[in-house]
Every structure is written in C-alpha cells, then in structure tokens.
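Margin note: ligand = nicotinamide-adenine-dinucleotide.
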Amino acid sequence: MNHTDQANNIIQVQDGKLTVPNTTIIPFIAGDGIGPEIWAATQMVVDTAVQTAYGGTRLIQWLQVYAGEESFQLTGEWLPAATLKAFETYKVGIKGPLTTPIGGGIRSLNVALRKDLDLYVCLRPVRYFEGIPAPVCHPEKVDITIFRENTEDLYTGIEFAAGSEDAKKFMEMFTQEFPKMAEKFRFTEELGIGLKPVSKAGTERLVRAAMNYTIQNKKHTLTLVHKGNIMKFTEGAFLAWGYDLVEREFGDLVFTDRQWATIRDASGETAANQAQKTAQAAGKIYVNDVITDAAFQKTLIKPETFDVIATTNLNGDYMSDALAAQIGGIGISPGANINYDTGIAIFEATHGTAPIHAGKNKANPSSLILSAELMLRYMGWNEAADILIAALAGSIKVGEVTYDLARGVEHATQLGTREFGLAICSRMKK
Ligand code: NAD
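Resulting structure:
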C-alpha cells in the first residue's frame, strides 16, 4: 500500500458523520488468551460477509495493532502510543479481550482506551438467538440496547484508600469546609472514599447519542434508568438533564413521562400506562424513566417494554451483564465504545481472555463476531451485516455451535472455534 492509497482508505468524519471509502483500513487488536483464535474466526467471517455482499467492490484492509500481554512481550508496553494513534487516525477499530495487568499501578487497558479516546458511550445491544440455552422462559422477548455512560460516575477513579495520608487529608479538608455534611459519615477511621461525578455535559452527550440511535433504528421507547430517588444530585440530575435534553432537542419527535405527569396532574387522570399509549397514538417516541432496582425486575419480568436504555456508568455495567445472562450469556453479547462526535469507535468482545481455554480451538467467537456486525452497521455496510447475522443465527438455530452453547442442547453439533467460523461462512448468501 503506498501513501496515497493509505490516505484514500481512511474513514473521514465531519460533524459526527462518517464517510467510509470502499477500501477501508481497520485496525484490530487480536487480544490475549483466546483472543487470537476468536479473532481469526471473526476476520474470516467478516471478510466472507463483505465479499458476499459486495462481490469485491468493498474491502477491509486489516491493520494489526497491539495492546495487552502480547504487546508487553513485543514492545515492553501494555498500551503503546502507536495503538492509540491508529484508532485516532482510522476512527473505527475492533479488539479481542485483553489481560488486565495486575499490580504496579497499571490501569485496566479497556478503561485506558475509553478514557484516552474519550469513548463516552458503551453500547451493548442484547438480543436472543433461537437455539441458545437461556435461564428464562421467554428470552426471545429481550431486544434491548443499552447506552451506558462510559467516562463518569464512580468509575472515574477518584478514590482515596482507607488509612492513607490522602484519605486523611481529604477528611480534614471536607470536615473543615462542610462540617454539617461531614456529620453524615458513620465511621471516620479506616474509611475508603470514592467520588461520583455526574455532569450535565456528560449526561447530555450520552442521552443525545441514545436518542439518535432510537430514531435511526426506528425504536419506540427510550428509558432513562437511574437511582435518582436516593442520589438526587447525581442520578437525579442525570434524569432531569436527560428529560430536558430530549424535550429541548427532539421536541417534536418525543413524548416524555414528565410531560405526561403534567397533563395527568392537570386533568386528574389516573390511568396507568396512558403515557405510552398517548405517545404511540401521536406516532412519537416514548421517553420514560425507571429506577434502577425496578429496572432489574422489569427487564426480567417484562423485557418487551424496553427498547433502548440510557443510564449512568455503574448501573449500565451491572445491567449489561445481567441482560446478557438473561439471553444465554456474555459469550454471545457484543459491545462497542464510541465517541459519536469524533466518530472514533472501538468494537469489542464483552468477555475476558478465558485463559483456561486458550490455544484449544474451543472458545466461542460469537461476541467478537457480533461486535464486528455492529461495526459493519456503524460503517453503513448494512448488507454485509445482514448477511453475517443471518448466517450466524442459522448456525446457532441448527445447533452447529461451540462447546459452551452445545452444553445441555440435544442434537447439537459441537464445533471448534475455527469450524464454527467456517460453518457460518458456508451459510452466507446474498
Ligand atoms: P473471562 O470472561 O475471561 O472468563 C470467565 C469464564 O467465562 C471462562 O472461564 C469461560 O468459561 C467463559 N468464557 C468467557 N469467554 C468465553 C468464550 N468466548 N467462549 C467460551 N467460554 C467463554 O473472565 P475472567 O476469567 O474474569 O478474566 C480473565 C482475564 O480477562 C482477566 O485478565 C481479566 O481482567 C480479563 N478481562 C478482559 C476483558 C476485556 O478485555 N474486555 C473483560 C473481562 C475480563
């Protein structure tokens, strides 16, 4: 590839809109543990889907970049600057799971990538595939996309260890400046402290992204999940700013629970669920809110009432994995970390490196394959994404699956990682 080709093959972003060349360079991190095996299967599946959809008129040129254990062995660095630069330059990338370095004050690599590239949305669509053993009676009712805020909340990393000089200093400063508030501490010795920042700007960009996704994907409901009844100035503010944003920026397209409450109070109406019906009758997107603990119950009991969820970081972390378990496990749930303003997006397997399965041609590549499917849609290559998903769903439906999905399923044919990839490819048709 010469320099001109290279420049022509880079995704361009203007005002958050992607222009994707027909030949596109995509950086990838194969990952640690099972990473290289599931990556090899994923690359084969994606290339075949693109070839099947476009017959050679579109092509991905894969560019390997490094992070994690493999990178440390090769370069002495867990997350080389060149890798961050590649994601910045090429905008869209994909990664397998990475070993989290233990000790030595090294940050989680996933957290570092999200922070350094300001990837403020953690996107986790959760849907069921027929044939997957699931722990609930009606997993097929789950088709929910979670927008988890990725840069704030208790995960910001502003923490003071119990008994440390910093914790002591913090307590002295806090007690002096806010004596009344300081009385709320139940114990003051050996006290670990963490801060929970939630900002208006951080909330708005997350909710705006979720709302745009809801519109573009023709979904009917956006639910703000929060714990604002207890944490009023963080989770409660998230809720208020979320409603403000959708009413202000998407006014004609939405009907919110907050607007409904005003109408209801004025008219004396008491009927439940009337807000959703009112929104539907007006052909508008229904924006409501549910308190986190209730949301966990409701996504289990009535998952069909949710389409898109926008929520804070910690809520979103718990909720993504709980919903993934509901439809048969994180082995098949895709994910992405996205900044919708710069366009930079990294698609990723949501499970870890599963070291006990590494090198055995055994692991399930579905999470990474489905992340690649999300990536193709993000690039606007929907035809390839459709072909890929139909082929994957077909393999799962007939029970041609890896060991984890074959367990407990009668008549399943257990395949290795590579053979599962091949089975998917063999099902692809235009
Ligand atoms: P894990 O997800 O790697 O493994 C938990 C168990 O889930 C495994 O023993 C295996 O039985 C099963 N499993 C996971 N992925 C599978 C797949 N594709 N196919 C079949 N079975 C699969 O979680 P862990 O053991 O807690 O973490 C191992 C390492 O991965 C740690 O270093 C951790 O920090 C890292 N990790 C990385 C990421 C990431 O990069 N996104 C996420 C989680 C954990």
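The longest helix spans residues 35-54.
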